Amino acid sequence: MALMFARLAHNFIKNGYYPTDEQTLQRIIQMLVCAGGEGTAAHRMLDPCCGEGTALADIRHGMLEAAAANANQKPAIEALGIEFDQERAWHAKRCLDRVIHADFHDVVVKPRSVGLLFLNPPYGYGISDKASGNAGSAEAEKAERLERTFLFKCTPLLAQRGVLVFIVPHYALDEDMRAHLARNYQNVQAFMAPEQRFQQRVIVASRRKAGNASKQVMDMLAQVQTGEGVPELPEEWVSEPYVVPAVADGEFNFHAVRIDAAQLGDELERYRQHLLWEGFSAHFHRSTSACRPTLREMTPWHLALSLAAGQVTGHFRSAQGREFLLKGDTFKHKQRTITTELNKKGEASQVITMLDRFVPVINAIEFTPDHRLGQIVKVA
Prior knowledge:
- By secondary structure, the chain is α/β, with parallel strands linked by helices.
- Helices cover 23% and strands 28% of the residues.
- It contains nine helices and 15 strands.
- The strands form four sheets. The chain has a seven-stranded mixed sheet, with helices on both faces. Strands 12-13-14-15 form a four-stranded antiparallel sheet. The chain has a two-stranded parallel ribbon with strand order 1-10.
- Helix 1 packs parallel to helix 2 and helix 5 runs antiparallel to helix 6.
- It is elongated and about 100 Å long.
């Protein structure tokens, strides 16, 4: 099966970013199958460092083809991505269902809501909180590795029995990462990537309830870190496949803490049919229709209420030729009354009563073209 998107990724190779190669992706796809989901449950896939989105797009395409060939089914697969680089993020929006252009740490994802986590994080060390004040010092250089940061933060997003595909340089697999994998995952297998430009290892595992670290897994991962004795990712997968579960949840959270104007416009365009503006004329048709006349001439009391409620506003001319621009309003006035009462024993007590009164106020701007032009007139 030829991959549809992987070749496009090479257009974005720059600034230390290198996408997962086509051969590695091809062999990973053979390991994955979709579980049978019920109802509207979706097989949700997430790439928190999705780049241009081609890797996850190819995985989804391959799993759909395999499902159609084996069982003549078309499972619902939702591909989600997060990307920090603006150019790559906007390209990924055309390949995946939803992509957020933001720092991964500024994105909220509902825990245990992802069936497949494809994690090929940036390699190297992050920036320490103290680095800005100690530039060049030894302490500033001891920031946590990015591979570990992404693994620890992404694990809670996986549903139980969800599948992890973790691509990492073998030398970065330190003791903390090995213990984390052994405590939180089962059926852990590690392979050498066919492309060894970056000394990558592909670790595949299924999420389980956190427990004691398996010594067998710890020893195996320690061997992986040495870079020796690890089999290459097989060209043809003959073992039991990793089953990506369908995740059914009532409300799925996937949003950025902060969003820029371009992404806001993109989201509004996506949900354009559900916005009020599309049905503006239907909802506010009265604004274009003629107002019905009153059954009888309004009394001054009715006129005052209509003005105060804002139902009668605009340009008016009096019988004497004066012109006004009227605007009505209403404010609440508290009327306070105090009464004194005496009981049978001659003891006095005061009762304070607070009564709310709604007072209409009608103001006008003098439009008469003479010396009064522009004056504010209080009508009532």
